[in-house]
């Protein structure tokens, strides 16, 4: 993100009010805009140079070109490392990367082998996205990552296979209700394993803590720009890490809920209509269209549930931070996506 580029002058966090949910939704729409995937390496470098020129005081005010450059940088670079996130794992590619996997999991009539393969594929993608977008102030070891991956895969496959075996045995519900419950099994597996996946992949952050920084007042920001001093971390907080990881896990559940619930329920209703019965080959493209449409709207709404740059009262963290808060006694940290 732009915070990782050289210069002591901070860019405005957004064109929108990030203290409000709808302001964060608008900001999330920009981060998740797939058009930023088409920006070339030279285009990214030009955007970085434009951002750096502002941060170094060579450009005095934000312009439409600067806002576009910030959009490109924020959707491409990791905020902690300043390095580009691998394209399939960026939030701007999230809808595209998940489309085929989600369609596979929601395919009606999947047998055991298909269920296992699609759940493994989904959790593999989740691990990659969680790792690529995690807070990098506390790196995750390869052994921990592998262990977390297998635990998440085991959880998702166990839930999916367990519920697939349980639903047909339910005796007090109608066949129509059984059909709906069967279509919702992937949601239960994805939601539970997805949240677990976040905690497992980012468990090292909870065990070691993540960097927290004082929230600067406007005067302190001006002084920082004059002195050319970077804001130093106050230390690592386990409580901040727990909050960051918990909010990220919840946002993943919020994102998967409409995507994994609405398309299968709508498809069940559509499959009862004559026009789709006469054209069964249209089931797959209709399913893909439903998933794509839902994903496009659901992702920004879920990402906006919590601010990415989270500010909290210092007294809600460990005692060592109580007297070290900045403006209004607050500290901030990168939540991750």
Provide the fold topology.
Blueprint: H1 21-31, H2 41-55, H3 64-76, H4 94-105, H5 112-133, H6 142-166, H7 175-201, H8 203-208, E1 210-214, H9 218-227, E2 235-237, H10 238-270, H11 274-277, H12 283-303, E3 309-313, E4 330-334
Antiparallel strand pairs: 1-2, 1-4, 3-4
Helix pairs in contact: 1-12, 2-3, 4-5, 4-12, 5-6, 5-7, 6-7, 7-10, 10-12
Q: Can you characterise this structure?
A:
The protein is built from 12 helices and 4 strands. A 4-stranded antiparallel sheet has the order 2-1-4-3. Helix 1 packs across helix 12, helix 5 packs parallel to helix 7 and helix 6 packs antiparallel against helix 7. The longest helix has 33 residues. The model has no long low-confidence stretch (mean pLDDT 85).
Main attributes of the structure:
mainly alpha, 337 residues
Give the gist of this structure.
This protein has 337 residues and is mostly helical. The protein is 59% helix and 5% strand. The protein has a 4-stranded antiparallel sheet with strand order 2-1-4-3.
Q: What number is the mean pLDDT?
A: 85
Main sheet characteristics: 4 strands, antiparallel
Record field, number of beta strands: 4
Major beta sheet, strand line-up: 2-1-4-3
Low-confidence stretches: none
Cα-based radius of gyration, to the nearest Å: 22 Å
Output the number of helix runs.
12
User: How much strand?
Assistant: 5-15%
| Helix and strand composition category | mainly alpha
